[in-house]
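Exercise (ungraded).
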Amino acid sequence: MLVKVKWAFFMTSCLIAVFLMLGASPAGAVPPDFAGGVANEYKYQEMVFLTGVPIKFSGTIKQTEKVKGDLTTLTYDFTLTPEDKSITGKFSRKMSYKISSSKDAEVGQTLTETEVGTFKESITINGVKYDLKDLQFYKSDAIDNRPASDYYSGSVQARKTYVINKNQGEVIVDISGGDVGYNNFWGSTQTQVLDYNISQTRTIEATKTAQSQKESWQGTVKVTVSDSTDKSLQYNENLATLSSFNGSYTRVTRGEMASQYSYDLPTIIEGVADDTQRNIDQVSLNMEKVPKVEKLLIPKFRDTGGHWAEDYIGQLFSLGVFEGDSKFFAPDAPISRMDFIRALVRICDIRANQAEDKKKTSKKAPAEVSPFTDVPTSSTDYQYVKAAVEKGLTIGVSDSLFGADLDVDRAQAIHMLIKALGFEDKVPTPGFSTSFADEDQIPIWCFDSVYVAAEIGLISGDSTNRLNSQKVMTRGEASAMLVRFLKILQSDLQKDYRENIVLFN
Amino acid sequence: MRRTAVLVIILALIWPQLICAAGVQGSTVEGFLQAVIAPDPNNPTDYGSVKIESYDGNLATLALTADTVCLIDGRPVKLSAIRKGMEVYAKLAGGTMASLEAYSTAETGYIQPGSRVVIGTISKLEEDLIEVRRDDGRTSSYYTTPATTISKQGEAINLDDLYVGDRVKLYFDEVNSGMISRMEVQGSSVEIKNVYRGTLKTVDNTSQHLSLSDVEVLNNSLWESSQGSWRVAYNQELPVYVAGVKVPTRNLKYYRGRSVYVVTRDALGKDSIDRLVIKSQYESSYEAQIENVNWFSDSCELDNNKNISFSDGTIIIRDGRLQDKFALTAGTDAYFVTDTAGGQRIASLVNILSVGINNSSIGQNCLYAGQLADVFEDSFWLEDAYRQDNNVWQSVSGQVELFLDNDTSIWDMDNKKQITLTEFVGGDYSVDPDDERTEDLDLTSWYVYVYARGDRGACLALHHEEHEIDELRTTSGTVVSVENDALVGWVMTLKNTSDWSEHNSQWMGKQTNLRLGLENTLIIKNGKAVLPKSLKAGDRLYMVRNDFRVMVVLVK
């Protein structure tokens, strides 16, 4: 009996991870539901257009996420009231979505399908009640799982049918659009761009002064909503003078949701819609979460003070990307393949498939054998090499040698960083050129990576526009390039997936 | 041993013949791949072979070895990636195939149309040339073609609607082409919301917010009290300057207690500081015209004989947008806020007042006022006409012909209605004075204001009463509010207004808000005539008015 209970407990805790949060997003930044609403830890806001007039509602949202194998169940529970206290109303919506995913490990992609589980929505505004009677919802996403980040894009198609005051008419909201996003250790953003087509038909009851009349109108609302989190490093000087260190770094995690509604609705005059006079405008919502702060290791190298790469080295050391077992960093010494790979794997937070292997491996199975004689499994660096090779960041210098102590030149570094981003295929068909003056010296195997790296601003030429692709990188130069790579993961992706979509749509 | 040597000699002698017999020239084989024969799994020394039909038609079967390098377009691949039908180049060395290279495509350097994207801020506009400065500072020039589509928040716009300072996304169809195939323009969020002055109280680098006390907002070239204390977000890459010197953003906290000038924009639904200048010593302000600019010393001379220097940190605002120092040109009217540092006047803020009908030198737009002489199906003639394209009405000699189309907006202002092209052509808006009916009905031709794009009449406002051109004033300003007043009809309140002074050839800033009437006003927004309620707070206007009554409003 005890065994059964333990087993049930084990199953529950292992297979079902339940998060109950108030106003927070599930793992990875995802706007709640598909209504353009924004939330922080405490509050939720959303615009409602069912009456033909934009009305801002605010209140609370409860979200849960259950993961069971390849199936994730998301539930939302909204309780809102109008912000404008001259409007009487209440808003209640309970939704659950089931997200099934199938991963193709060979091509490194995952496909997901989202379906509605249950739904219940009721909105009352100035005595008029809108009940959601039917919801048809289809959503599908393709996720490209790359070493440093996952990128995804999806399509949404839905129709919501509301009944007005049980039998006075209906509002149909057709929703179409999609979402794009990325998710990595340093940040996560999802931006939804949705078009609402709203059509209302309603019979307005007769009053003492007016006869019963039929009313119908149509309107459109374009909703762009984005949820984003990012981690960045911030240097804080030590306020005290008599201290063992001058300053330290803090990792700051910020979260922000922003939405923009652009609407074209009828003009409502004394409760009746004039479909010929349009009310065209925009409204924006924004909510920020309180930044989370984490103190990092204090950099105390004795040979980096005043070096042009001091700040880059300090940041990477604080993150634990570089080892701090010596007081000397040697910023002008060449960086070895092992040091570069270790740094890259740590920055991307890539982990080798160790846990799974352990589960699958029985005690009788033969011990793991390293493919490289210079990096045995007993080496502390083995997991980094294994992770890098598994993710396709690098291969050995031969079938049996990794070349851990060999120097890294700029071409190798660029190639590995572009592979980590997963951008190596974003090149024209062969026969293109780069803008570098010494293009003829770029090895063919990294030509694509150099083209992409220049396009995304990871690299630039020297004062004579030479890339110097075969120049061995110093540890200081490698630090600068890795920090630029980090900035792409932290902020460039965020800007591209948020500002460059929301502000241009 | 001797037998082996003989065998090697025989092979060496007959090998070239064998190759030639198979259509192979020298140590290379070029042609089309006929077949890939996979290695025999039961034979560890078999690495597979390929059949190549050389360009001269001969067929060669070549075996791979453990050392044969397979490539596609120079990139190493497995043999299985090389497909039948591909053009290949096999290099032979020492009697074995050293490498087999295949070519994937004849369409070299192809990209999916629109997949190359450049994002940046327009720094120059000239005819079909657009210079864009990217976020990393790189500046490049690109070109538009008649096929280039331009849109702003989903609405199609014209090239002459663009401003220097606009943020754009450029899409290209070819890898090295400078020809823009599609352009998206950031919406109104690119415009600044306000300029404030206040005392820096706190700086929170973590949440990226700062707070100011004694906050004043710049309105009508005056600092007006705004609020006692204000917490506001700032841009992650906020440029901070003091006396023309850049200061790291993280050091901003050391300037607590100092006066600062900040510019805010809407950043995803919240106010955010985009630029910040710390006051160094003493502030002075002037409204003046730039007489000349010295680019070597980054300074300019004003018509009040003051010399002012500027830096990369100077906040320069033109057309509601932040611009670089090249917006400062001779003849520009502006409001200057300067800082005296080391005996030098350094501009902290330059708010350019100069505005015109056209957004850039690309525009060919102008206003006409005159009496209708003739109206045809696709054109009309004006007589006693005046033209305004540089703030000044100038008489036009003879008659002017302007063209009409189905997209022309025509408004009968006396009857407050929009009319169709047919109604315009068939109505009594233009009459023949010699016609009997004209005499019988005592008809006269109507007057018209025309917003013209080149020689095309885009928007027409018809009115029966003649307006004295000498009484018209050209005014610019920003909408504060628009309301339908019970007594006087639609009115608007404007701030930051300036009137064009013909006498001084200069924009003269007003120091109060302006209330103007919009009854019987032609209001043009996005090239189309609209109703007064379409005006929104924050809209920047260029208008022609007669005292309270506005004749034509152009929403910039």
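Further reading is listed at the end of the chapter. For now, observe: Chain B has three helices and 44 strands. Chain B touches chain A at residues 73-76, 103-105, 107-111, 116, 119, 134, 136, 153-154, 167, 169, 175-176, 184-187, 189-190, 205-208, 233, 236, 250, 266, 268-270, 534, 536 (CB under 8 Å).
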